[in-house]
Amino acid sequence: MYFESFSAFLQMGTHGVYVWSAYGISALLIVGNLWLAYRGEQKVREELRRLARREQSGQ
Amino acid sequence: MIWSTLTRWYHQLGSPRYFYRFSDVVLPWLWPLALLVTATGLIWGLAFAPEDYQQGNSYRIIFIHVPAASGALLGYVAMGVAGLVNLVWRMKMAEVMIKAIAPFGALLAAIALITGAIWGKPTWGTYWEWDARLTSMLILFFLYLGVMALINAIPDPRQAGRAAGLLSLVGVINVVIVKYSVEWWHSLHQGSTLKLVGKSSMPPEMLTPLLISMLGIYLLFAVSVLWRARAELLWRERKSAWVKELH
Predict the structure, then answer these.
(1) What is the mean pLDDT of residues A6-24?
(2) pTM value?
(3) Is A1 inside a domain boundary?
(4) I need a labelling partner for A27 at 20 to 30 A (CA). Which of B11, B23, B111, B239 fits?
(5) Which CATH architecture has domain B31-231?
(6) ipTM of the complex as predicted
């Protein structure tokens, strides 16, 4: 660890607020986007199963 | 010989079924690996890399800013190549790729802009300046949004794919402008960090975590493209036998 203490790590000199906000926003956006990408496939599969059930019950 | 290999490769990659099976094999280990590599690079850069003698700790934003910006540029080039392939050969898979690349590319462009603005405040004294690098990066973000909007606006997926492919291809000009903006115009933005490696302006203690973060972000990009391509493929191919066999 480059920093002497955990509070020094959080403070980053005078730049803590810039560094942590940049990382926080980025992490949230990336995780959110990946979650949407993953959920997108799940949703299509659910929709296809629903369509298949409807097709079967219609016959 | 070479020709037959190329055509086989083209048909395999272009086959939705083959692509889906390929991603089935790759994804279960690719997404944890991508998260691990990204976390390693970022934590290394945040906590273990030394301070910059000029900028202090604010420079640590570089470990997310540069990977995001370079990923956004590379992603757009990939989209442009897919656009070209689609315009010339009408390849369905290329349309799927354009649609799958755009959302994460737009996200990375936004992250590059946001982290750049935050970094600009302590370094330049301003969040935003209408200079060549910043403005061309903003245009890149809007080009990504434009590709997404085109796909959403045109109901027929083949027509939407062709239009989006054309915009992707033409927009590659802007990637060149972003890349060379700091050399062609006077800019607040510093020159390319990675090019200065040879002049040892970035020591290995900083360069190593930066390269690891870049690799991590590229892998996350690949994961997001695979997930989105799978969703799009399943929906487009919903009437074909291989999709019906899945459920």
Answers:
(1) 91
(2) 0.92
(3) no
(4) B23
(5) Up-down Bundle (1.20)
(6) 0.92
